[in-house]
Write a sequence for this structure.
């Protein structure tokens, strides 16, 4: 089931086109990473989706409805937008009570949500004294009070310590897998969501550059593979005939030694396919390895 | 709608600012009560044992109008400052409902300020009038009108604060403009240009209290005229508050 559907969304602030004809969908029961560098238009897209910013054109629907037309929005969508949106003088429990009362939910949901995010002990403390990590958890608790089936989180790991990030990953997995919710989580760091997400939507300069399964992004062949062979001059053309895109490796500092060994960077082929070509050509390989920063590299290239 | 008003009141009363403002408002009322009681009958000050003086004494309850105004600005600008407006509009995407709830909540908060002021006035004014040898009968015919006027004025100034906060969005700017208006411009106009001043919110409030105009000045509107004018201002401010809030992008 399609939980979120964004179609040809455009928003201009003054002369800056923040979002430019972006379209993508998010399915129930999956976690989708919404990626892009800072200023790519992620936050504006999410805020259009949530009815906080009026789009110039295009549609952004949740469960087939625009946000303003959802009957009880907080029970349909849980949003975590920024960690600073609390009144510092209000206690955590009172913050959530305000949400519950406005939404017509029982006030007991406030304490239940605090329990879920591990803030039960701090319920009576003023938010002004909270660490950034505690604020993120409180923001998440605010998204949970309505028990929605769609979650939209804007950079939720900002300010979390490694333990907090790990906890968040587990929690998002729980939401998607156990409750069947659709989760859209934005980040400007691929590595941060790499272990959590099933799908990725990548935008840059307001435009969509990629949507698909994370697995496809990894094995669609554009992950560069580093190949070292003494007879690189013979292997290179053979790999190109096999459909690979071969670059001599970027000149390293010890250029002389490396070129002697013959370092190639191959795109569009899996290590296995490269090995097969080397075997057919009877070329001895001394190194055959996926570039460790491959995914990050693709991300950088896509968003450059 | 009821639950939205309840939530807005919960927002106000779960911060400490409201108690500070109420304390300041009552403090100003107390100063005014003390000054009018002590200076009673001296040159230029009406005697509190007479009707005009007694009305002025009870009207001290409205001395803290500016603090009601400040609470009103906070109801809106506090949400922008701390970005809680995001939560508010996420829960209630139909923003006109949020504004309506805030207007109602401001009226309630202002009324609470007014009632508290009237209670304090009564506690001080009644013994003061008796000690000066007067009789409470001098205020019999006017006390209800003064009370209603004080409560209405407090409610209106809280709504005025809300409108100013909605218009400017920034807390400091809204407070500076509002305080400048209440303490400087409006006071000057009511005294120096009474023909204009009587039509301003401050002048209308004076008319409802039934306070005598400054000596030689243009008389205030009749009480019902003042009440009508206050209601008209409330309506204009409500429109300002909603149009500015509904259009704003929350980034």
């Amino acid at each position: 089931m399609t939980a979120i559907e964004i179609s040809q969304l455009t928003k201009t602030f003054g002369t800056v086109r923040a979002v430019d004809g972006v379209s993508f969908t998010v399915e129930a029961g999956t976690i989708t990473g919404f990626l892009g560098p800072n200023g790519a238009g992620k936050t504006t897209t999410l805020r259009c989706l949530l009815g906080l910013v009026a789009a110039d054109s295009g549609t952004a629907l949740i469960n087939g409805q625009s946000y303003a037309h959802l009957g009880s929005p907080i029970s349909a969508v849980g949003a975590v937008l920024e960690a600073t949106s609390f009144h510092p003088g209000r206690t955590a429990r009172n913050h959530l009570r305000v949400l519950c009362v406005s939404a017509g939910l029982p006030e007991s949901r406030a304490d239940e949500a605090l329990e879920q995010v591990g803030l039960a002990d701090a319920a009576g403390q003023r938010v002004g004294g909270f660490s950034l990590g505690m604020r993120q958890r409180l923001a998440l608790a605010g998204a949970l009070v309505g028990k929605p089936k769609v979650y939209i989180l804007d950079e939720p790991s900002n300010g979390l310590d490694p333990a907090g990030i790990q906890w968040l990953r587990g929690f998002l997995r729980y939401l998607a897998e156990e409750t069947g919710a659709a989760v859209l989580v934005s980040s400007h760091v691929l590595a941060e969501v790499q272990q959590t997400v099933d799908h990725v939507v990548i935008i840059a300069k307001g435009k969509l550059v990629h949507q698909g399964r994370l697995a496809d992004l990894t094995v669609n062949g554009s992950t560069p593979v580093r190949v070292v062979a003494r007879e690189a001059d013979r292997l290179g053309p053979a790999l190109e005939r096999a459909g690979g895109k071969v670059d001599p490796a970027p000149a390293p500092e010890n250029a002389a030694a490396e070129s002697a060994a013959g370092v190639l960077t191959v795109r569009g082929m899996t290590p296995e396919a490269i090995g097969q070509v080397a075997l057919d050509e009877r070329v001895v390989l001394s190194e055959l390895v996926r570039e460790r920063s491959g995914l990050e590299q693709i991300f950088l290239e896509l968003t450059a | 709608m009821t639950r939205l008003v309840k939530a807005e009141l919960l927002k106000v009363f779960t911060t400490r600012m409201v108690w500070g403002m109420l304390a300041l408002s009552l403090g100003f009322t107390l100063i005014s009560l003390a000054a009018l009681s002590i200076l009673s009958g001296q040159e230029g000050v009406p005697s509190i044992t007479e009707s005009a003086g007694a009305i002025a004494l009870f009207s001290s309850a409205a001395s803290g109008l500016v603090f009601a105004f400040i609470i009103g600005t906070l109801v809106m600008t506090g949400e922008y400052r701390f970005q809680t407006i995001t939560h508010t509009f996420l829960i209630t995407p139909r923003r006109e409902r949020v504004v309506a709830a805030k207007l109602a909540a401001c009226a309630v908060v202002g009324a609470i300020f007014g009632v508290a002021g009237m209670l304090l006035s009564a506690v001080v004014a009644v013994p003061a009038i008796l000690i000066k040898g007067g009789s409470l009968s001098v205020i019999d015919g006017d006390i209800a009108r003064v009370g209603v006027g004080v409560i209405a004025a407090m409610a209106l100034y809280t709504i005025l604060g809300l409108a100013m906060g909605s218009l400017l969005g920034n807390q400091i700017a809204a407070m500076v403009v509002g305080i400048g208006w209440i303490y400087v411009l409006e006071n000057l106009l009511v005294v120096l240009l009474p023909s204009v001043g009587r039509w301003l919110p401050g002048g209308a409030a004076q008319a409802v209290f039934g306070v005598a105009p400054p000596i030689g000045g243009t008389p205030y509107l009749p009480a019902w005229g003042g009440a009508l004018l206050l209601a008209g201002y409330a309506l204009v401010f409500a429109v300002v508050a909603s149009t500015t809030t509904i259009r704003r992008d929350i980034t």
